[in-house]
Amino acid sequence: MRFFTRSLALTGLLMVTALVQAQTASEKLADLLSGYETFSARFAQYSSNTNGRRSQESSGEMQLAKPDRFYWNTLKPFPQTIVGDGEYIWVYDPDLEQVTRKSGDGNSNAPAMLLNGQLEQLDKDFVITNPVNTGNEALFDLAPRDKEGSEGGSGFARIRLFFVSNLLTELMLEDHLGQRTTVLLQDQQRNPSLADDHFRFTPPEGVDVIFEDAL
Fold it and tell me: Which residues make beta-bridge pairs with 76?
């Protein structure tokens, strides 16, 4: 009887293990991105060319709230604030005393879909693989299904996401010319309390406002 019970338990364990192993890369990524409604972090961002030389380094803070609101505030080297309120995207350049309002349709690009957890649509556009998956680290590669359309569609030839302890710590975007943009995240907070007005933007007095969405 003990042997039968142990055999049954072992069979159950093997079945659970098989189900976990059978989980697709897109399902694993969806699980990691579905555990929060809001998110905040400090970021350091830099670009690099095909030779690996860095340029355009910047840093700041970011917050987002599903499904379509975000706040991206660059502090160094040049201040810039980008706010997505769900309808429009506002880009404020204090040095230029200029605000640009864009259509919120830009929120449907690949990075926004990733951060907001819109994996269903993303899975239709990208092949998602999971080359590294240990107990503490997970790496995901995303390649466009339509290679020719990557230039005019998402604009990216490859996207990589790196998670440590189930938190996104690095995001890399590579365009079809080999230019890479890497975003490193620190002090990540899952589901912090964020006020609704944090994602609203009112142009400061005296600045020029360009309405690109009205063109």
Answer: 59
